[in-house]
Design brief:
By secondary structure, the protein is α/β, with parallel strands linked by helices. It folds into three domains: 33 residues, no CATH class; 95 residues, Roll (Ubiquitin-like (UB roll)); 128 residues, Cytidine Deaminase, domain 2, CATH 3.40.140. The protein has eight helices and twelve strands. Helix 1 packs across helix 6, helix 6 runs parallel beside helix 7 and helix 7 runs parallel beside helix 8. Pfam families: FdhD-NarQ (PF02634).
């Protein structure tokens, strides 16, 4: 995935010819651009979803998608994952437990995911209502998290976003411990995909979802809150704003939602008890 000039392209990016306007003149050359490829998720030989995604960490993506969509109850229900590149995209084939496969066949619907997609494939408002909920997040099990921890984790994200630094076109989702130490980061052209990749990485790495919090370099849409709640994360911190529906779902599911986590400030929209008061 290198261009003719031999420049290096990190995983998830390619070099393409481009003309740059600078100081009143046009300069020819190449630019790093984020890859965005169709990724087909196939369960037991049945194609369930086609998502546009960055082509790295796809095993994490497959696991996280399977968990956040409720296709499997836990990692033990996924027996095998195979990633195969094809001419038109990438196929990720999963072999899952028979019970999960049976439920999937009963509830499966055709859907095509796009980078900014929400409820792709939902065909009615009644179906939307069925999809909206999330299981309750476990109650706080430890002392409140210091507000500074949110900002330490968000600040640390910048140094861990290699693909974004190269292309300027991708989102990141990270997992931090209660002190704000960033333990895991995943990137993708889609903010939902980045969070799915993080959920999958945590499950595969044996992390306890209740022992830290997630930070995302995007707005907090309802889908992001839903994925965090389904992963049993107690707190989601976003660098940008939430939507009203996201706040409603966070309140109903017991998840603490923080927005505008930047420049030493943040806004708590739901369940503020998980964060210590300023100065504590």
């Amino acid at each position: 995935m290198n261009a003719a000039d031999g420049g290096f392209a990190p995983p998830g990016a390619c070099r393409l010819p481009a003309a740059r306007w600078r100081a009143g003149r046009i300069e020819g050359g190449t630019e790093l651009v984020a890859d965005e490829v169709p990724v087909a998720l196939v369960y037991g030989g049945i194609s369930h979803a086609v998502m546009l995604a960055s082509p790295q960490d796809l095993e994490d993506f497959a696991v996280g998608f399977s968990l956040s969509e409720g296709i499997v109850p836990d990692l033990r229900a996924i027996y095998d994952i195979e990633v195969e590149e094809e001419a038109r995209g990438i196929v990720v084939a999963l072999r899952i437990a028979s019970g999960a496969m049976m439920r999937l066949k009963e509830t499966r619907r055709a859907r095509t995911g796009r980078t900014g997609c929400g409820l792709c494939g939902v065909e009615s408002l009644a179906r939307f209502g069925e999809e909206l909920g999330a299981p309750p997040v476990p109650a706080a099990r430890a002392a409140p998290i210091a507000p500074d921890a949110l900002h330490r984790a968000m600040a640390a994200m910048a140094a861990r976003q290699d693909l974004h630094h190269a292309t300027g076109a991708v989102h990141a989702a990270g997992w931090a411990d209660r002190d704000g130490a960033l333990l895991c980061v995943r990137e993708d052209v889609g903010r939902h995909n980045a969070l799915d990749k993080l959920v999958g990485a945590l499950a595969r790495g044996g992390y306890d979802p209740g022992a830290g919090f997630a930070v995302v370099t995007s707005r907090a849409s309802y889908e992001m809150v839903q994925k965090a709640a389904r992963a049993r994360m107690p707190l989601l911190a976003a660098i940008s704003a939430p939507t009203a529906l996201a706040v409603q779902l966070a309140q109903d599911s017991g998840l603490t939602l923080a927005g505008f986590v930047r420049d030493g400030r943040h806004i708590l929209y739901t369940h503020p008890q998980r964060l210590a008061p300023d100065g504590v």
